[in-house]
Input
Amino acid sequence: MAEVFLAVLRGERGFEKPIVIKVLRSGLVGQPVYAEMLVNEARLAARLNHPNIVQVIDCGTIDGRPFIAMELVAGQDLLQIASRARSL
Output
């Protein structure tokens, strides 16, 4: 449903923070149900505050594509963990 990109949030005086941008796939832009799902995900995640849930930084539209900007959590992704578990 979405593509995930590593990005850098830049501010004044050299402030930089690595973040993640989740953007609706371009092929789904014309289908409002998917845009609404992404916005609902952002709304729900923004209400939650827990160490195991990433924080939402922003939500909006880039070039007509809805996005969620989230904190970057360093570590292995689920694919890496599942691949390692299969090899045990």
The two ends are 31 Å apart (CA to CA).
